[in-house]
Design goal:
transmembrane helix, 98 residues, YggT family protein, transmembrane, membrane, mainly alpha
């Protein structure tokens, strides 16, 4: 069986990665309001890392009155998944180790 401290470390790393991804999607949503230069390397990086998640959400959820709510839904799914997965890993680590 995997040791408790390894599971806690894994849970912390997953939490950090999902939090960073959450902020990347949030930044992309905010960038869409100001229409930045699409050739800016930072903008291209943000679009490149967030499109694999936002693309499928856009195909499933049509715009409402011209407003794209896919980033909001993606953020909610990321937070829900993060909380569920991290809590599960903490519980698998064993009592008293969290």
């Amino acid at each position: 069986m995997i040791s408790g401290s390894l599971l806690i470390s894994l849970a912390n790393i997953i939490s950090l990665v999902l939090t960073l991804y959450f902020y990347a999607i949030l930044i992309r949503a905010l960038l869409s309001w100001v229409n930045p230069d699409p050739y800016n390397p930072v903008v291209r990086f943000i679009v490149r890392i967030t499109e694999p998640v936002l693309g499928p959400f856009r195909r499933l959820i049509p715009p409402i009155s011209g407003f794209d709510i896919s980033p909001i839904v993606a953020l909610l799914v990321i937070e829900f998944g993060k909380n569920l997965l991290v809590r599960w890993l903490y519980s698998m680590a064993g009592p008293g180790l969290t």
